[in-house]
Amino acid sequence: MKYISTRGQTAPMDFSDVLLMGLAPDGGLMLPEHYPTVDGAVLDEWRTLSYPELALAIMQRFATDIPYADLKDIIDRTYTADIFGSDDIVPVRKLEDNLYILGLSNGPTLAFKDVAMQFLGNAFEYVLKQKGRVLPLSARPVATRVVRRNTHCAVKKTSKSLCYHRMAK
Fold first, then answer.
1. Contact 6, 28 (CB under 8 A)
2. Alpha-carbon span 61 to 67, nearest angstrom
3. 3-state class of 29 per DSSP?
4. CA Rg, the chain, in Å?
5. CATH code for 36-129?
């Protein structure tokens, strides 16, 4: 799968390149050239999967430049009971008939963003290692403690932590 810019001035790119880029060079957002279709049979199959299995089934449709075994390893390291406190990762609880609640606050920061950020941290580490690159992380002094404590922003071998201090006048 290739990704294109909403402004149309950037050549199609792979998932790994888009992951590290942020905005497109032309200032647009990068979107898939096409979205994979999922029929009823696939949805029925997906209903039987664990969260990590479902994440892998979906992500392999979007991160096609990452070999299956490597993507599986990223997913397996991301969605664990050690990180999310349960094998369910995002548990669904029945409140009453036809009323359910999805638990999205079981990650390290107790916020819904953990579900995506845990994956992104591991995906960044993988892609940077594959490309032989290092990602600089920067933060203001107050934020530095937060950056270093969050698992999804943990300083890894593929990142360098920088802290900028404001100079007194």
1. yes
2. 11
3. coil
4. 18
5. 3.90.1380
Distances from the Cα of 105 to the Cαs of 14, 79, 81, 82, 86, in angstroms? Answer: 31, 13, 13, 14, 11
Instruction: Specify whether the CB–CB gap between 134 and 160 falls below 8 A.
Output: yes
Encode the chain (169 residues) as per-residue pLDDT tens digits: 999 999 999 999 999 999 998 899 999 999 999 999 999 999 999 999 999 999 999 999 999 999 999 999 999 999 999 999 989 999 999 999 999 999 998 888 889 999 999 999 999 999 999 988 876 666 555 555 445 444 444 446 555 555 454 555 5
Would you say how long the chain is, in residues? 169
Active-site residue flag, 2? no
Burial (Cβ within 10 Å: 0-12, 13-18, ≥19) of residue 122: buried
Of the residues 113, 131, 157, 169, only one is catalytic, namely 113
Q: What is the pTM of this model?
A: 0.77
